[in-house]
Structures are given as C-alpha cells and as structure tokens.
Amino acid sequence: MTCQRCQDEAVVHLTELVDGRRKETHLCVACARASGLSLPDAPPDFGLDAVLQDLIKKHVGELVGELAESTCPDCRLRYMDFRTGGRLGCPHDYQVFRKGLLPMLQRFHGATRHVGKRARARPGASLRLRLRSQLRQAVAREDYEEAARLRDQIRLKDQHA
Amino acid sequence: MTLDDLTRTSGEWLRGAGPESDIVMCSRIRLARNLADFPFTNRASRNEKAGIESQVKSAVDAAGLDVAYFDVNGMNNLDRQFLVERQIISRELAGGEGPRGVAVTPKENISIMVNEEDHLRIQYMLSGFRLNEVWDEITALDDQLEDDIAYAYSSSLGYLTACPTNVGTGIRVGVMLHLPGIVANKQIDKVFRALQKINLAVRGLYGEGSQAFGDFYQISNQQTLGKSEEEIIKILTDVVPQVLQFERSARQDLVTGRRQHLHDQVSRAYGVLKTAQTISSEETMLLLSSVRMGINLGLIDDLSISTVNELFIQTQPAFLQKLRGSELGVEERNVARASYLRSRLANGRAVEDE
C-alpha cells in the first residue's frame, strides 16, 4: 500500500471514527511525522548478528575507528560482517581490512608474515574480481553502456579460463 | 569409478600398514587454496561457483590424475553421508549449497574438494606415520594444479583463505591415533592439555566439533602462518612419538598389571562382535577399539588390523544403507550392522591364554 501523500510505501495505518464514520489513513514514516503523529522508535532488532555486531562495535569500535564501518569494494563484505561471521569474502579483503586483521593474525598464529611455500607470480591474476567490482559500480550509476562492456570482458575472461 | 564401487573397496589409509601403524591409523595433510579471480565460496554466486568448479575440474584433468569426480550438489543425502563417513568429504561440503564436488582417486588417498569453505581443499592420506612422504606427494600435486590455476596469494600473507585461521601455508597436518591405553588409564585429558599448550588441536575422527569414537583422536596443527610447512610437519613428527610412547607404556601397564582382565575384555568384545544379532554404532566402536588393541598386544591372532580398520568405517550408517541399497531406520541398521559384522568376522578365534 502506498502513502496517500507521497506514494512511498505506507507503514502507518490509522483507523479513526469521525462523526460515526470510519476513516482510514495510510502514510509513510516521514509524512506521518510531518503530520504531527508521534511514532515509536524503530523496534529493537533481536537478530543475533545485530546483537553481536553491537557488542563488537563497543569493544573494537574505538580501536579500529573507521574500519568498523568499512566495506570491501570488490565483494561488498563489511568488516563487521566478517567479525560476526568469521569468514572473509574475497582475496582483497586481506588488504582492505588489513589493519584489523594483523593483530588478529598475531594473536592466533603468533606471526603476521608468511615464510612457507611461495605461489607462482601471476600478474593481473585478480583482474576478473576488479572487473566485477567495476561492473557493479557502473550499474549503480546507471552507466549501462560501460556495464555491458565490462560484462563482455568478464565473459571473455571466463571463456578463456 | 562410481559411488557403488566404493562399497566394494576400501581406502589405502585403512590398510594398517606403515610405521607405527599399531597406533597411528593414518597421516593426513590438507592444503586450503583459492582461485585469485573469484570471491571466496561464501560470497560467490551460483554462476561463479560453477565457474570455479569447471576451472578446478580442468586443472585436475590436465594434471593427469586418475580420479572420479562426484557432483555433491546433485547427490542425495545418503550418498553425501557415505562420502563423509569415508573421510572423502567434510561435513561442511556435504551440508553446503550450490555447485560443489570432490575429485577422488580409486585408492582414496587423494581427494580434492571443490567449493568447500575454500575453493580447493586438497587432501592426501596414507596409512601409518608418514607425514614427510605425504608432504612430498601433496606439494607435488599442488604444483601440478598450479600449472592451470592462479592461486589467491600475497607475498606477505601467503595463500589467502576464507578464514584467517588458515592463511599463510593453508596447511593442516594431522595424524589419526588410536589411544585406548591412555583412555583406559584416564590420562587422555592430561595429554590434551599438553598438546594444546604447544598449539596443537585434538579432535574426534570427523574433525572439528566431532566426538572421538573408538578411542581415535586426530592431532593437528592450528597455526598456519609464520612457520614453513616443513617446520609445522616437524612439530608433529617430534611430538607424536612422545604420545606413542605414552600409549605403549599405558598398554604395557594393562598387560602386566591386569592381563587376565584385559584378555577377558578383548575376548568378550570379539565374541560380541562375532555373535550379536543387533548392535548400535556406539557399542560397535567401543568393542572394535578393544579388539584392535587386542590384536596389537597379541591377544587375537586370526584377525588383521586392516579388517578392523575397515569395520570402523563400514559399520557406519550410510555404508550399511548403501550396501543394502535402501534407507534403513535405526533398528534395521542395528540388525544390518550385526549381520555384516558376523559375516566379516566368521571363522575367527581368540588366542588361547597360556
């Protein structure tokens, strides 16, 4: 149902009796507030993730500052999602969340530097991940021509993989 | 090779051969690897998972390995459970979603899981205490796969994995130990605490979160960063002999101090396994553990360690159901288990006590 004033989604549904007649009003939050209705605050979210994130934020928020708010541009994983779920989303997360990860690695492994077997160097190996991220950005800014070009590039890369 | 073929064969790692195989059931190393070009499995779309699967499959083909690929996504629950029981796939892969599978050799010493927590989980197992040999094999296989796969890797952090607890070498080095002596003299907690102090993990037969059964325990490294693979393997090869010595002296105490009691326990266990008409999985594990120790101590001479090792796996629920070709309820399984045990253990006898 849409808001009677602005066509946004209506979330407030009022039923009044005026002169013995039933009158229904449907409003979105903003229009309801604008018309002087007092609304309760958003109900608390009892999801476990939310509670955990809140707790973690209290503990690490000040320490890591903006890190708590950061999101990987490639896989869209938020640092707080990682802290609650324990899994990273893509290889770039190690760079994006480096500040938060290093102390964690030091605690768990007693080290922060790899000294074992080395993989072969492959310049541009994560190009597909970059293209994927650029594609998402192009779609977000509605640059569909660029999005189509990037999509074709990714397809080409997948075919030659 | 089909899944049904696996009901007629058993893995090399159950052979009961190799150094210290009276206590060390098998040595296992797994490597966690990811493709540089894709999000980790938990953030990959269905299409991307399919792309990862097809790239890994062609790398496995190119490596010329004699493997069968099982599509876990298109498999029913019983078949998935069957592969978990055989240690070919993890419970996580069995319970996952989207395109995923496993490549496995007929001897079941190599399995390569695709789209588990990491894109690749390469596992190599051999019976007995042979970690260095396992490492030589698995690192060569890893190199072969890398001919066709660009791994997610950073020069400072090593192999990049979905969980930071595996980053660096991505290696998990483990041995599966049969420790009935230490369990009997109630020293197992003490051993656990000592191992944990040096950052080794002790787990049940089916890995993280699983219960130890049949007195089998897996000991493995937890830290994967800051030490080379060889250094990590050396920690295990230094520590495991001490645990073996502890187990041997516990068994010796049992033999010298309570020989009659021990012999009675072993013989009764063997007797029940050979004659029971219905038997639960838990009781089977307990009795097989006694019988296995009995063989090692020379109290039973007509049964091989490899048969007992196989029975630990082949009396599990999914194996029995695959063998029967239909789903069975708990009671039916208990009857089928007893029948299977009787057929495998027929004609055996325990050693006469002098």
TrEMBL record, chain A:
Alphabetical list of InterPro entries matching this protein: UVR_dom (IPR001943), UVR_dom_sf (IPR036876), YacH (IPR025542)
UVR domain: residues covered: 130-155
Pfam families documented for this protein: UVR
Protein keywords: DNA damage, SOS response
Source organism superkingdom: Bacteria
PANTHER family given in the database record: PROTEIN-ARGININE KINASE ACTIVATOR PROTEIN (PTHR38430:SF1)
Protein name, as recorded: UvrB/UvrC motif-containing protein
Source species of the chain: Paludisphaera mucosa
Lineage of the species this protein comes from: Bacteria, Pseudomonadati, Planctomycetota, Planctomycetia, Isosphaerales
TrEMBL record, chain B:
UniProt entry tagged with the keyword Membrane: no
NCBIfam families cross-referenced by the UniProt entry: PRK01059.1-4 (NF002194)
Organism: Paludisphaera mucosa
CDD domains linked to this entry: bacterial_phosphagen_kinase
Catalytic activity of the protein: L-arginyl-[protein] + ATP = N(omega)-phospho-L-arginyl-[protein] + ADP + H(+)
GO MF term set: protein arginine kinase activity
InterPro entries: Arg_Kinase, ATP-guanido_PTrfase, ATP-guanido_PTrfase_AS, ATP-guanido_PTrfase_cat, Gln_synth/guanido_kin_cat_dom
Enzyme Commission numbers on file: 2.7.14.1
Protein's recorded name: Protein-arginine kinase
EC category: transferase
UniProt keyword list: ATP-binding, Kinase, Nucleotide-binding, Transferase
Gene encoding the protein: mcsB
Binding site for ATP: 26-30, 121, 172-176, 203-208
Reported function: Catalyzes the specific phosphorylation of arginine residues in proteins.
Span of domain Phosphagen kinase C-terminal: 23-250
